[in-house]
């Protein structure tokens, strides 16, 4: 029996290995992690991450050919193919701080693999890593090989949170990069045969290592660029009276462009977009490509501008202050159908409002109070942020209340902000909400999910990103 081990039981490792186990019953799959709490959760009825369809797959395969364990070295030693899916955060200090990826966990994993291996291994990069990481890992393994042969492959993930299982079942493409040597090609074929259990061969793309690594960064950069582009247009739409939804629809009808990722919003979030673009900027700078680096840097700056603009719009609309006012925050996750809050725009919006002494009442169906408290009190990387977006002190947490009902969150509020496009927010009884809010009652729709006209008829003053401005707002520009 072929044995696969995945180091890292997070958002990528857990779902990916669960689907491999489901689709390849003859392969034994072990997911290992040093976090006892995380592995305990994977072995319980309350999985550590929320992803539609994941729980059913785990329950079907767990204990059969899918195992979650903290015995890292044992399973790595026994495996034929090792996926490495550890975190690659942005460096916060030293050379490349604020841009370069921190490969501490990757290097540690590589040295551990070299220490415990007793037979030849295929080591697969599953984390998003800088170009040439495979070469560095290869050097570590080669210089500590003790006669054992290693083949390094790059197999980047292209999952979207909230649809990860569907993405794994029917991927647009599976990308495998390896060395152009007989051994490298054999390793590529071995991994290709795993995916071929359910992925059509024409959807499995084989490249060299560097192309595979760069393709992941490029894909995320292109997607983030589309979001920043439509968000830049949303600001112009508000200034001119155009409707960004109509503009996006017209633009998306061009088959050369297409309709995806053209929804204006308060900004992009998630664990990859900002981190990968920062990494891309750093790689460009290291290779002397200053103009290219500045181009990608602007994608991040527009994203930060959009969050700033949203906060400024709220404050200026409410008589230029939210001090002491209750603001309801509906949605904290960076997108619907996930509990992930990494780089969620809600963090910056909430910090901006807290910076003006607002009192926040937050509701998200999948994010815990502990996570929200943690996100709003921790430091984050600074990228030309305005003063009111700087990390808050613990005393600010007194201005924060996390509730488990949208109606409770909005009761007595002066304004409400929609920051995640959860389906349940589209069917709320806004008349009931309006009756229980302070007047004038404001709605700030950061995801363009409400019927603006209907809410205005109820009595709300509505701001929806990129839509023609409410008469109330026209003389109150959202300047940074």
Automatic annotation (TrEMBL):
Keyword check for Oxidoreductase: yes
Keywords, sorted A to Z: NAD, Oxidoreductase
GO cellular component, one term: nucleus
Domain of life assignment: Eukaryota
Pathway participation: Nucleotide-sugar biosynthesis; UDP-alpha-D-glucuronate biosynthesis; UDP-alpha-D-glucuronate from UDP-alpha-D-glucose: step 1/1
GO biological process per UniProt: glycosaminoglycan biosynthetic process; UDP-glucuronate biosynthetic process
GO molecular function: NAD binding; UDP-glucose 6-dehydrogenase activity
Domain UDP-glucose/GDP-mannose dehydrogenase C-terminal intervals: 328-452
Enzyme Commission identifier(s): 1.1.1.22
Active site: 272 (nucleophile)
Residues engaged in binding NAD(+): 8-13, 33, 38, 86-90, 127-128, 161, 272-275, 342
Alphabetical list of Gene3D superfamilies matching this protein: Cytochrome c1, transmembrane anchor, C-terminal (1.20.5.100), NAD(P)-binding Rossmann-like Domain (3.40.50.720)
SMART domains: UDPG_MGDP_dh_C
Keyword NAD: yes
Reactions catalysed according to its record: UDP-alpha-D-glucose + 2 NAD(+) + H2O = UDP-alpha-D-glucuronate + 2 NADH + 3 H(+)
Similarity section: Belongs to the UDP-glucose/GDP-mannose dehydrogenase family.
Protein's name in the database: UDP-glucose 6-dehydrogenase
Organism: Anisodus acutangulus
Native organism taxonomy: Eukaryota, Viridiplantae, Streptophyta, Embryophyta, Tracheophyta
């Amino acid at each position: 029996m072929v044995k696969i081990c995945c180091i890292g039981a997070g958002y990528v490792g857990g779902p990916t290995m669960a689907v491999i186990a489901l689709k390849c019953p003859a392969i034994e799959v072990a997911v290992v992690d040093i976090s006892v709490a995380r592995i305990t959760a994977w072995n319980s009825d309350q999985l550590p991450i929320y992803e539609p369809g994941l729980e059913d797959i785990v329950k079907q395969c767990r204990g059969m050919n899918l195992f979650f364990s903290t015995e890292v070295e044992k399973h790595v030693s026994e495996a034929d193919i090792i996926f490495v899916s550890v975190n690659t955060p942005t460096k916060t200090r030293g050379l490349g701080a604020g841009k370069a990826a921190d490969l501490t966990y990757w290097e540690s994993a590589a040295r551990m693999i070299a220490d415990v291996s007793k037979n030849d291994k295929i080591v697969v990069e599953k984390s998003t890593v800088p170009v040439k990481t495979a070469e560095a890992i290869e050097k570590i393994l080669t210089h500590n090989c003790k006669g054992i042969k290693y083949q390094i492959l790059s197999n980047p993930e292209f999952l979207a949170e909230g649809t990860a299982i569907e993405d794994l079942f029917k991927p647009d493409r599976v990308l495998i990069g390896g060395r152009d040597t007989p051994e490298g090609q054999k390793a590529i074929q071995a991994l290709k045969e795993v995916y071929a259990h359910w992925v059509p061969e024409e959807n499995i793309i084989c490249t060299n290592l560097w192309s595979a690594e760069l393709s992941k960064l490029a894909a995320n950069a292109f997607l983030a660029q589309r979001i920043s582009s439509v968000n830049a247009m949303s600001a112009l739409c508000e200034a001119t009276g155009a409707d960004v939804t109509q503009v996006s629809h017209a633009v998306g009808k061009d088959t050369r462009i297409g309709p995806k990722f053209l929804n204006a919003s308060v900004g992009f979030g998630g664990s990859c977009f900002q981190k990968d673009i920062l990494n891309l900027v750093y790689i460009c700078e290291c290779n002397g490509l200053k103009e290219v680096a500045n181009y990608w840097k602007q994608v991040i700056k527009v994203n930060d501008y959009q969050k700033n603009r949203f906060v400024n719009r709220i404050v200026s609309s409410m008589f230029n202050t939210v001090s002491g006012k209750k603001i309801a925050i509906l949605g904290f996750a960076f997108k619907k159908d996930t509990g992930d809050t990494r780089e969620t725009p809600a963090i910056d919006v909430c910090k901006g409002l807290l910076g003006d002494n607002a009192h926040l009442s937050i509701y998200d169906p999948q994010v815990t109070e502990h996570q929200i408290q943690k996100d709003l009190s921790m430091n984050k990387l600074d990228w030309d942020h305005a003063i009111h977006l700087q990390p808050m002190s613990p005393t600010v947490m007194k201005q924060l209340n996390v509730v488990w009902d949208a109606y409770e969150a909005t009761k007595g509020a002066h304004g409400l902000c929609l920051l995640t496009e959860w389906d349940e927010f589209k069917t709320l009884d806004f008349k009931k909400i309006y009756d229980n809010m302070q007047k004038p009652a404001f709605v700030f729709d950061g995801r363009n999910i409400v019927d603006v006209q209907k809410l205005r008829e109820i009595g709300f003053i509505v701001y929806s990103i990129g839509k023609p401005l409410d008469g109330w707002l026209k003389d109150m520009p959202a300047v940074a």
